[in-house]
Automatic annotation (TrEMBL):
It comes from Amphimedon queenslandica (Sponge). Pfam families: CN_hydrolase. CDD domains: nit. The keyword Transmembrane helix does not apply. This is omega-amidase. It comes from the Eukaryota. Residues 8-233 form the CN hydrolase domain.
Amino acid sequence: MATKAQTFRLALVQCLPGSNKVKNLQRAAEMVREAASNGAQVVSLPECFNSPYGTRYFPEYCEPVPDGDSTRMLSELAKETKTYLIGGSIPEKYQDKIYNTCSVFGPDGNQLALYRKLHLFDIDVPGKIKFTESDVLSPGQTPQTFDTEWCKFGLGICYDARFPELAGLYRNRGCKVLVYPGAFNMTTGPAHWELLARARSVDCQVYTAFCSVARDESATYVAWGHSLIVSPW
Ligand SMILES: O=C(O)CCC(=O)C(=O)O
């Protein structure tokens, strides 16, 4: 009798989105293909993989989901690589609002989840960083999970990782892996990125994956990078 595989390989794609959306999509796709060819069965992209990160960019780069170029690419790519593809996030245009949205596709190319960032990143650390996503974005309303043959996954985006209640809700729903596409910065990154991933894992006894964009010192928003996967231990 064939037994179900208990293990799988999860890849985090730490790409470096620039101002050219077509190139951002091409590069992300190349990196997903590379991950799949190295045996990854689940692949995540980072937050805002199709655009630079910043409130000034969201209105320009936003697209409908699932009928925009970025989401279509994700669906085709999941099917081509036969992976579960967690599409990081993109600015999503829906009616008259913009959301920070993650869509997930299965190996058959079908959409399994659409998650809109629940907790918007509004902070002011005097002299260091001020960022107000809520100037432009609207918050999502619903946690989202999706199932694979190995386990259930829970989704969050970046700042969402600061809220243990969301992770606990996913744990209570039976998730074994929490995936947070992200883009921390050079102030909160060194202080909290790894700490938060390890905290969510230990307090919920789950695997936690933080997938960041790569660092570009010349960008208007300099990301911390350091994508990581943490075990329950
Ligand atoms: O929580 C933080 O320090 C960073 C959050 C962030 O960059 C985001 O939510 O996009």
